Here is the input.
Amino acid sequence: MKRLLTLTIVVLSLLASSCSKYKYETVKGDPMKTRIYTLPNGLKVYMSVNKETPRIQTYIAVRVGGKNDPAETTGLAHYFEHLMFKGTPNFGTSDYTAEKPLLDEIEQLFETYRQTEDETERAAIYHRIDSISYEASKISIPNEYDKLMAAIGANGTNAYTSQDMTVYVEDIPSNEVENWAKIEADRFRNPVIRGFHTELETIYEEKNMSLTRDSRKVWEALDAALFPHHPYGTQTVLGTQEHLKNPSITNVKNYHKTYYVPNNMAICLSGDLNPDEVIATIDKYFGDMVPNENLPKMEFRPEEPITEPVVREVYGLEAANVLIGWRLPGNSTDPNDVAQIAGAILNNGQAGLIDLDLNQQQKVLGAYGGYSGQPDYSTFLVGGSPKAGQSLEEVRDLLLAEVAKLRAGDFDEKLIEASINNFKLYQMKAYEDNSARADMYVQSFINGTDWADEVAQLDRMAKITKQDVVNWANEYLGEKSYAIVYKREGEDKNVQKIAAPKITPIITNRDKQSAFLTEIQQSKVTPIEPVFVDYQKDMAQFDVRDGIHVLYKKNELNDIFTLNYIFDTGSENDPALSLAFDYLSYLGTGTMTAEQIASEMYDIACSFSMYAGSNQCVISVSGLSENMPRAMEIVEGLISGAVADEAILENLKQDMIKSRADAKLNQARNFGALQRYLYYGEEYIKRTTLSNEALSALGSEELIAAVRGLMNKQHEVLYYGPKSEEEVKQLIADNHKAADELAPLEKNYPKKQLTDQSSVVLAQYDANQLYYLQFSNRGELFDVKNDPAITLYNEYFGGSMNSICFQEMREARGLAYTAQAWIGEPSFADDSYSYTAFIATQNDKMQTAIEAFDEIINQMPESEAAFQIAKEAIISRLRTDRTTGVDVLNSYIQLRRLGLSEDRDRQIFEQVQTMTLDDVKATQQQWVKDRSYTYGILGDIKNLDLNYLKTLGPIRTVSQEEIFGY
Here is the structure.
């Protein structure tokens, strides 16, 4: 019956569009009013109109991913994604006729290289590849795709590869659809594989990064256990190290020819667009792409039922945890509605079984669960981390006991209705965002689902009963039909670093550009005039009473509200505030238990959070506007009437100490701590961080008083929602329980350390890859007049994939997956400017990376062509960027901290238009050249060249206790 209804809707919509040249499908009741076109060559096009900003989010999705990689060259889908940015015969080269023979020779050499086993012979072949690649680089123009995107004002240039899909991402101005389509059609039709060996170095770096991330290894181990006969489990997206060391350009080309075809692609768009015009433009440029009538069909041996737990173990430096998964049908054959409801019943962040039974009751350090959907198979997951002294097996048993409650029906049926209400809330939020809207189309296309079924999902969910959930859980979440991965602490014996081959930096040819780029730059489009925020008109301010000032912005889009209480105090004033907020979230009041608070907030589709920064605290309430009064009443009641529980507090302290110990095992957390240490110094860390001893000494009374005492202080209220000013005034007056007399709070902000002389700070972390940061602060104070010059320098030197920094560090030298450098701007009036450069690279590339940074930072490469691209990118972006919604209020607060009241973008837009490369050179001379730096390195110190590092400045090694503060 459902399929018949879907067909009727589609037929009616096709009849309705019969007067148009291009037929399209629509679905009755679709809030986004989606149009779905299918061109004669099979290309799908999904569109919806959202005119909030003059931009369009674009995703080009290809239904191919890691699962489609040939078994002998895994990782191919992912590294082809990288190569799609290298250009075509029309761009990325100054003379493709001359370049092609060199590229053909490189391709043949790689085929020989991958068949050769003798290491001496392989080294000689690679040397030849490197030499010819250098000659080819004299003709190529690296990053010209990124220059093209910058020229049309695109934001967020990116792509990603998963097991099922490869998706290419751009956010473009609404007046650049023609140029965007022209560029994209050319690269999808005619990609040229150039810069191959340096891009492989980037992929090696990405692989090396993954080897230090235990979470990725855990997920891969779970997939291998659940899907032993399917590519989900037999191969990984990044590929094996062995395959990455033996790549094949020939296989890459065949892969493109097979899968990058219109009947395997979808263009997904949402934004300020005219569907009739856009589909005609897409047809103009993509309509003649040739389909593959013999598109390979994904065939796999069906997995046998799991009758006993499949157990795997993973070792690594990070904290221990456990992950359990059950195999489900894929989204292409089952919408898994009940699975998603079951996931929300189990864990929704507020009132699910895991939320209340495990997290709220502090039985584990942390636990989660839910549904993860994919086309061929889906997965139901639960995972958790142990408390101090708790085994992974104990965590496993607790998790399995919660899943057993789904099978037994041991849950409140009202959770189903509450979950559906919250799904509606999430959907409402998603409709605000073009990226989320367009991604819904991507997922539907990749899963092969009817859009009518996607639109009707909430209606189907509303008919799900408790018995449906119980039946489903008994069918799919069997007592023994799961796979489990124990992530244990210890050395991973399987990790092998991919050694860095000797590479000659390729030529960047910054001042060359193709005729194609010139044509795009000279094309005429109807200009879009910029719109800057007028804070007198675009928001309102008023006092509810003395000491409570309100910043107000009306939500014209939907019925969602956000209410923030903002206090100018934080961990610098009281380092216990963060613990106090955490403690409060576990407590009840004299009339409501903590579980009742969580359950009712979830029932009314509202939530709250409390956050303590270094100099500001925020208590936030959000959700459906109709329930705002009740949500305020609950949260205010908790703040004023929380009932202490010493057992909960003691548990919380022990869990925080365990979480702190776990943080010290994580590479990213160590680097974050080192970065904070370099910026602000040891004394700041001591001021803002409780030692474990001080934390253990805290009592309930002082923690509850710390939060309650905030309501005795002056504060600001930020409101974004659909209610009028008068309604908001009344709601705050009726429900906000602040003291009659409010004491003032003095605003103060953290100051970054001065770097009067260069020095080196080392922190130990046992990994093959290091994180490197160089930081400089000379104490120059904020002046808004500097905005245009600094914005232009950052865009030219370090702002994008087209920047000097990215080109030199990644494209030309293959030193890193990511590299950045920028002038840091102050965030408050008496803050200072700084300079930062960052790279993550292998230990054996450290000296090369530091020397390369020194060269390009102090002897900045100059290119008029690159400058013009950077300038065009800023101007085009500012023409179409819009500050809307709650961002109006947040940007006002940011400006006020700087002593400003007008949109800074106006000055940048007006002045950048007349600036020249000489202005960038002058900025580099004034702000960048020959600075002193603190060089911070997180890495395996025994593998670092300390003699070289001594040439940079005196070396100091810091302990984890110094950088973390505990």
